[in-house]
């Protein structure tokens, strides 16, 4: 199988970015002039980054945040970077609640974008095309502009429902999608991660995918069913094609991967599972908008990385040398980054050449998987030169970048 590839669109680098610094200054000044002294929105924070060398590979690692509060990157399927301004968005609860921040990768200073106590930060997504971040605040789906810090409401989760997935935004920033799930009583929920997963799966709450325009118009439900739905992802190249999943423990869900058109038509399975015990999960789009990657494990055998073709449903699955909580593909499609597990807390870099997957550890991130916001959730920068990830190796969550060597980029055409 030829690996899905796409021509490089933009160049991401850590270099001069006067526009980001100026916009931060103007937004903070506007907030002050408006007399908004109580709000932290627009506050500029000083550089707190430091440089680490990865013992496993010799690669340079940038620890972008060092505050004692938890900081976290966005979900691994979400855009975090703004390439034309060399900026990256992350979430932090250094103010006492999760909020969104925009970091300048030249100066490493960052500005606070929101000031709320109801934000789900890791489920946000950046729209580089419109210079906005889309996020949820309680039942409201909102957008904040990266330059002016202006906020607006885009949609509202229906009464009696909760947001069931991270937000997904089209490449143009003109439309969004996410899943919603009926509010149900879960008696098994504790502070332990996934404690209520079996009960949630068994109760089969009514769920749906919601999609509509970023200007607030055209919102409607699709794929409504009495199943727990999640992981709603719009194709990066085809705004009318939406991927979603039936959620639950991977080896219990009968059919994990599903596709549906934005108008609700042609709802169909992807990578049809021969039997429920096949464990499939943590799906993601390749940048070509045609192929979908996922993790798969059979009752017997090694962990594997799968690639499914949305055009005809065919798929290929490649044995991986390590088990990972999350895997993401490079924008050009022949590199993968994995984040390991509690037992092996390493970032692993994989390369797919001539149908064979090879890999090696490149950094011991040392993070725990006991909390969602500590999951590394690795993701490539737009030019595949860096990998963004989260780690609590310092005792609390922090955001990191690891720089990949140029010779790897050179072999990632």
Would you mind describing this structure in some detail?
The protein has 413 residues and is mainly β. The strands form 7 sheets. Strands 1, 4, 5, 6, 7 and 8 form a 6-stranded antiparallel beta sheet that branches. Residues 1-11 and 15-36 have low confidence and may be disordered. The protein starts with 17 loop residues before the first helix and ends with a helix. The protein has 3 helices and 32 strands.
Q: How many β-strand runs? A: 32
Biggest sheet character: 6 strands, antiparallel
Low confidence ranges: 1-11, 15-36
Structural class: mainly beta
Beta-strand residue percentage? 35-45%
Provide a short characterization of the protein structure.
This protein is mainly β and 413 residues long.
Descriptive terms for the model:
single chain; 413 residues; mainly beta; 6-stranded antiparallel sheet; 5-stranded antiparallel sheet; globular; disordered N terminus
Task: Itemize the secondary structure elements and their pairings.
Blueprint lengths: L17 H16 L10 E2 L4 E4 L6 E4 L7 E2 L8 E2 L4 E6 L6 E6 L5 E3 L6 E9 L4 E6 L2 E6 L5 E6 L4 E3 L4 E2 L5 E8 L14 H7 L3 E7 L6 E6 L3 E6 L6 E6 L10 E5 L6 E2 L9 E7 L5 E7 L6 E6 L5 E5 L7 E3 L5 E4 L7 E8 L2 E9 L14 E2 L5 E6 L6 E6 L2 H5 L3
Antiparallel strand pairs: 1-8, 2-3, 3-32, 4-6, 5-6, 6-7, 7-8, 9-10, 10-11, 11-12, 13-15, 14-15, 15-16, 16-17, 18-19, 19-20, 20-21, 22-23, 23-24, 24-25, 26-27, 27-28, 28-29, 30-31, 31-32
């Amino acid at each position: 199988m030829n690996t899905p590839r796409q021509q490089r669109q933009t160049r991401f680098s850590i270099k001069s970015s006067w526009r980001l610094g100026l916009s931060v200054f103007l937004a903070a000044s506007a907030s002050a002039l408006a007399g908004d002294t109580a709000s932290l929105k627009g506050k500029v924070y000083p550089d707190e980054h430091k440089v680490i060398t990865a013992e496993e590979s010799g690669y340079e690692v940038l620890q972008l945040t060092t505050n004692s509060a938890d900081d976290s990157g966005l979900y691994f399927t979400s855009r975090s970077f703004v390439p034309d301004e060399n900026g990256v968005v992350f979430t932090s609860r250094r103010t006492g609640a999760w909020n969104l921040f925009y970091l300048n990768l030249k100066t490493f200073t960052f500005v606070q974008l929101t000031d709320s106590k109801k934000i789900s930060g890791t489920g946000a997504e950046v729209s580089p095309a419109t210079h906005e971040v889309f996020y949820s605040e309680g039942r409201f789906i909102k957008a904040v502009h990266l330059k002016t810090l202006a906020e607006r409401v885009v949609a509202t989760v229906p009464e009696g429902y909760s947001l069931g997935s991270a937000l997904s935004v089209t490449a143009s920033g003109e439309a969004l999608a996410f899943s919603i799930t009926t509010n149900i009583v879960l008696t098994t929920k504790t502070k332990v991660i996934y404690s209520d997963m079996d009960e949630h799966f068994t109760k089969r709450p009514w769920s749906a995918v919601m999609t509509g325009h970023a200007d607030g118009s055209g919102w409607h439900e699709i794929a409504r069913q009495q199943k727990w739905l999640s992981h709603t992802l719009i194709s990066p190249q085809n705004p009318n094609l939406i991927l979603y999943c039936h959620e639950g423990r991977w080896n219990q869900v009968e059919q994990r991967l599903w596709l549906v058109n934005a108008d609700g038509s042609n709802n169909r399975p992807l990578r049809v599972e021969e039997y429920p015990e096949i464990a499939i999960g943590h799906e993601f789009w390749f940048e070509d908008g045609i192929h979908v990657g996922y993790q798969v494990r059979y009752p017997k055998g090694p962990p594997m990385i799968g690639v499914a073709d949305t055009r005809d449903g065919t798929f290929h699955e490649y044995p991986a040398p390590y088990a990972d909580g999350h895997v993401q593909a490079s924008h050009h499609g022949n590199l993968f980054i994995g984040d390991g597990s509690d037992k092996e807390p390493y970032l692993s870099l994989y390369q797919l050449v001539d149908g064979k997957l090879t890999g090696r550890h490149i950094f011991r991130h040392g993070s725990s998987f006991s909390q969602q916001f500590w999951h590394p959730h690795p993701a490539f920068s737009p030019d595949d030169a860096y990998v963004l990830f989260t780690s609590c190796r310092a005792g609390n969550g922090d955001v990191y970048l690891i720089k990949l060597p140029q010779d790897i980029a050179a072999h990632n055409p």
